[in-house]
Structures are given as C-alpha cells and as structure tokens.
Amino acid sequence: MRSSDETIRLDHHPAVDDTRRLPRHRSQGGRPHRQGPAPRRQPARPVQHRPVAGQPPVQRRPAGPPPAQPTPPKKNRQAPPGCGCLVTLLVICLALAAAFAAFWFFSARQVPAPIDSLPASEQKAEAIQRAGKNTSFLLVGDDERTEGEQARSDTMLYMVMRPVDKKISLVSLPRDSLVTIPGHGEDKLNAAFAYGGIDLLLQTVTDLIGPKADHTVLVNFTGFEKMVNAVGGVTIDVPQKMYKPEEGIDLEAGRQKLNGHDALAFVRWRDDGLGDIGRMDRQKEFMAAFAKECRLMWPWQAVRLAWALHQAVDTDLSVLDSLKLVVDMAGMGPDAVQVDHFELNPQYINNVSYVLLDPADVRRTIERVYYGIEISSI
C-alpha cells in the first residue's frame, strides 16, 4: 500500500503545465510582468505548389501592383546618307575662304609705296630690286577650232606679275607686226606659231621685245570659253553691233554680261575700220573686265576656274608654281591690272597689211610693263 504522497503524484495530470497555477507577479504599474521576451512570430511561408509531372511550372505573379510597361524608344530621324560629309566639307571650305580673305586683307595692307612716289634718285634701284620677284609670261590664244588643224596665234600678250607691287602688267603684241622669223625670213608675227609652234613663237617674240618670258601659256578657243564661263561671264559695254555669222559673231550694242562664246566674239571682232588696232583695244578692255570678275569670284568659282585652266591651258608652269603665284599676288586692289600698248604704224607692203613697231618705243613699253617705270630714262 502506497502512501498519500504517492497518491497525489498519481492524480497529477502530466499534460498540465504547473506554471498556470503559480501566482502572477505584477509590476509596480499594476500590469502583469512577463518572465521573459515573448517569442517572435514567424511569418507564414508561401505555399509551395509542386509541379505536376509533364506540365510546366506555374509562374506566380509577385504580390503588389503590376510592373509598368516600358515605353518604346522614339525613332530618331535618320539623316540622308553623306550629309555629315557634306557638312564637314562645307565647314572646311568656309574656314579656308575666311582664312584666305583674312590673308588677302592683311596682304593688301603690306603693299609698299608706288615706285613713282619715291624720290627720283631711288626709283631705279628700287624698281630693279622689286623686279627680282617678278614672273613673266607669253600668253597665246590660237585659232584652232578642230583638233589637228593648222592654227595661227590669234592673240599674243606679254604679261608680268609683280608681287611686290601687287600689279599685273601686260601689253598686246600685234599679230600683224612685221618681224623676222628665225629660219623663215620676214613675215607677220602670228605666222611664227604656224611654222614652229610655241617654241618658235617664243624665240621670235624674244627677238622683238628683248627679255625672254619665264613661262608660256597656250589657250585655244574652247579653253577661252571655259575660263570665262568658270567665273560667271564678264560685263562689258559693247560699243556697236557686231555681226559676222561665218565666224559665229552676233552681239548687240550696250552694256551686258557676256558668256564665253560671246566674249570670244567680242575680242575677235575686227570689222570696225581699225583692224588689229581696234581688236587690241577690245582685248585690253576684256582683260580688265576679266580681272575684276576674278577678284570678286566666290571660292567655288575659283575651283571651277582652276579646273578649266587645268583642262584647257597648255603651259610649262607647274602646279606648285601656280599656287605660289596665287599666294604672292594676294592683296591685289581694284586697279591691279595695268594694260600698256605700243605705238603702232600700220602700212601696206606689197598689198599686204602690216604693223611696224618702233624699237625704241618697244623698249620703253616693255620697261614700264616689267619694272613699273622706264628705268632707261632715269
């Protein structure tokens, strides 16, 4: 038989927590006092759905608002192909044009005083010193219309570029001048080109005027027209109606802008009663008008003129020498072109019209063209 203590133990239910029977201790504020921190409540785990064999797993959308749909990017307007290259080329051309204009303006301020404004005792020495940088040319325009045709020199000019003075001086050589052609005797000057080309003509001209030209430039009718069209034409006051249909000449009187074809007709017209003398006067007028157009042309016109010269001109001048001349002549003023002339004495010999030149007048004229003054008279 067991004792009472043992009976009490048997009556105690093991599932009952004894702590419920213990008295609760209260804090000074009267609220129940817990013996320790309450256990933290764990968040409920999401229910994991096991995929059924043979079916793809179900994608569950996360809780919260649906994500914003991305805005499709705007399509940029595509530039035309090559636009960037054209813009770059245009900027480069404008920069070069501005630089050349600035250089031209600066060079124009560096022009020394004219020789004739210096004291007479200094003019000759100064003229000879400046002439050391001059470049002379024999410009020849032949009348060849078709390739292989026997041509004569229709126009002949002796031209000097004087970079120190920023001047271009020239004189027209009369085609009917009575000269002695080496190996062919006396004849008209333009016959020398038909006999031996530009070389024989250069030798004949040198015997006539004295100094030998540094370079030769040969231009035919087609090249002349291309050069005039490249600068946009020339403005000239045509003094009278010029009409000769067999040579393609048909011009009305009055001030007008002539294209290449009409400008060629203007300089070739000879039926005004003055013959070669009147024609040389028109050539001088044309040269002054052409030089003015060259000074006022835009950069792209300069490119067109350079290309026309390259195609239509036969010269012994190199490309580098041409560029050097362009740079040296930068800063030319409106009166840069000076056209001189010989004293002409037209006569008929054996029923043939010739022009006789005075050797003394030729020497003085060539000195004015080359030096700017007559140095032999100082």
TrEMBL record:
Residues 1-21 have a biased composition (Basic and acidic residues). This is LCP family protein. Signal peptide: none annotated. The lineage of its organism: Bacteria, Bacillati, Bacillota, Clostridia, Eubacteriales. The keyword Transmembrane helix applies. Residues 1-79 are annotated as: Disordered. Residues 22-34 have a biased composition (Basic residues). Residues 152-293 form the Cell envelope-related transcriptional attenuator domain. Residues 63-73 have a biased composition (Pro residues). Belongs to the LytR/CpsA/Psr (LCP) family. Keywords: Membrane, Transmembrane, Transmembrane helix.
